[in-house]
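Bumping with the actual sequence this time:
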Amino acid sequence: MSYFKVLGFDKEPFSTSPDPEFFYLSKEHEIALTNILIDLRLKRGLCIILGDVGTGKTTLSRKLIQELKSRDDFIFNIVLDPSFDSEELFLTSLVRNFEISLGANISSLSIVDLRESLERFLFQKGVTENKTVALIVDEAQKLSEGSLELLRVFLNYETNEFKLLQLILLGQLELYSKIINIPNFFDRISFKYTLNPLDYNETKEMIAFRIKQAGYRANMDIFLEEALKEIYEFSRGYPRQITMLCHKALKNLVLKNKFVVDVEIINELIEEEVKSGWHRKNNLLQNNIAKTN
C-alpha cells in the first residue's frame, strides 16, 4: 500500500508533477492567470511571466492549458523545451504540433515556405474561423536569439484589430536580460509579471489545500503549527521546496509510525538536507524587476 493511503489520503498530496488539480492559486498566481486570460481574449499578442526556479511557472502553464481546453474557440500548443538549434527546427516543430496541412513533404520546404504556411494557418483560424491561436512556451529562458526574432516576426501577423498569434512565455529571470536588449520585442509585451515566493499564510494555505485535494478527511491537523513555521523558514516560500519537504515529512510519519508532523520531524529532515549539501543556498528573487506593466 502507498504511504499516502496509510495516512488516509486518496491521492499523493505532495507530488512535484504539475497537476493543475493540485495548483494552489496564490494571489500572485491568480493575478498572472487572470491577466493572461484577459489578454488572450483581447488578442493582444504577448504575455511574459518571470520567476525563479520553483515558483510555480510550469504548474501555472498547466492551469492555463486546463482553462483553454474548456473553451471551444481556442487552439493552443505548448513548447516544453524551446532550445532549438535553428529557426528551421523551431518552425518545423510548430507546423507539426499545430498539425498544419502542407502541400509538400515538410523536409523539402524552405524557411520562407514554413513561415508562409504558418501565416496562412493563423489567418484561416483567426479570421475565417474566428478562433484564437495561442502558443505557450515554458522554460522560455532557453530561447535563442534566432528563436526570439522568429517570435517577434510572429507578432507582425495581425489584422487591423488583433494579433493572429497569442504568445505566452514563462521563464526564469535570465529571460529578462535577453529581452530587455531587444527593444522591438520588449516594447510589444502586453502583460508582464514576476512571480515571487509565497508568504507564510500562503504557505499554510497551500499545504492545507493540497491535503484537502488529496482526500484527507480526519478531524485533526496533520501538520502542527511549529512544523509549518519551520517549513516556511527553510523553503522561503518556494512552492516546489514546500512540496518536497512536505512529501518527505509524510513519508517520515509512516516510517516512525506517527500521526502528525511535528517540529522535530521537520528539523530532522532539514538537518539531513543541510548535511548532505543538496539544499539550495541562493534562491533569492530579483525584486527590482517590474512585476506588472
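The C-alpha cells above came from a reply further down the thread. The chain is about 45% helix and 10% strand.
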